[in-house]
Design brief:
The protein is mainly beta. It has three domains: 129 residues, Immunoglobulin-like; 137 residues, no CATH class; 94 residues, no CATH class. It has five helices and 26 strands. Strands 1, 4, 5, 6, 8, 9, 12, 13 and 14 form a nine-stranded mixed beta sheet that branches. A hairpin with a 7-residue loop joins strand 4 and strand 5.
Length: 399
Amino acid sequence: MKNYHSLVLSAIALLAFVGCSNNDTVQDENAQKSEDLTGLTEFAVKETATPTATRTMGIYSGSGIDFYWTAGDKLWINNTAVTPALIQSSKDNITGKSATAKFYFTGTYTAPSYQVRYTGNGNTVGDKVTIKSVQNQAAPNDGSHIGTDGDCGTAIATQNGARYDFTLSHKASYLTFTPYYSHGFAPEVKVTQIKVTADQSIAGTYDFDDAGIKTSSVVSSSKSIILTLNGGGDNGFEIPSAEDYTKNAAIMVLAPGTYTNFTVEYTLYDQITKIRGTVSKRYGTLNFNEGKNKKVAANLDVINRGDKLYMWDAQQDYWYGYESEQPLINENAGTHYPKSKTTDPMRWYNDVNAPYNSSVTATGNASKCPNANEMAWYVLEGDPHWRGTDFSRLPSIYG
């Protein structure tokens, strides 16, 4: 099957350190850490917990999101014995992407347990969470952005000797998009952004406590979230012909809740023809639970009418028998195009004077098409109007 630029024609992967010196390096780093951690109390992710279920950066596994700690993550303790009660970690052992992490707080802690909060990568307060209305994902299936875009969580850290152990419980909700197009787009056609909208606020700044997000407290709210992909603009992620999360999984953070008129809009861009368009999917009422992910695997609704072109009422298509010569965009056609009724009678148009002879009707590919009177009726009695760039609603020759 030809791989067409359907947009235009519709409109007319933890780094592993290896080497013989590896053990020496680790020992030196640990010695340095021990020296630097004097006067600090350790709060660590439970080693018995499922590592990839407890943190912020997200990678879709095909069945759910695996979470990792990333550089810049901080932890908060709610220590009601002091004022102010919310205390941020002063050190950690995170150098990149890690399934586990250790956070260090200045001073000595002796209570059996403490409430712990994570309010997002780079967040300077422990009682507010901001779920951004504009988010950006740089690479397919790489949710390293979600920590800065609104991911959050709580935990109870329990005493284990001189340290405290905890397992984070996520409090935001997540959407993972894996769009595809079963008819196959040209590789230059990309999905550049995904926008979701609802009747209720799905993003903004929320009060946050030991129980999680207080959705009724939102300020600077937004009823939409835009997720740009690979910087947006003319870039983006590829659109495979079948669902494949390794190629274009895109992860969005949103506030938990029940939303009506929930709509997902995909922006597509053809890098060759410079045409941009949108495809929308409406899902009605959806419920998003805290800490849970919904997968959206949408077959993009762009009409595909195949790759056949005809002269009016011809018996066969224009490139019948010479399909390999059919030109794509900005390509020269082959030489076996129909040249006359004599040399190519099956591919030549019906040259009868049909509009002026009521006894003559189309007998080839146009036999089921409306005649001139029917077309006039559609114009006069129908609803012809401009649809803009929403290609999901435009007629298509090739899809």
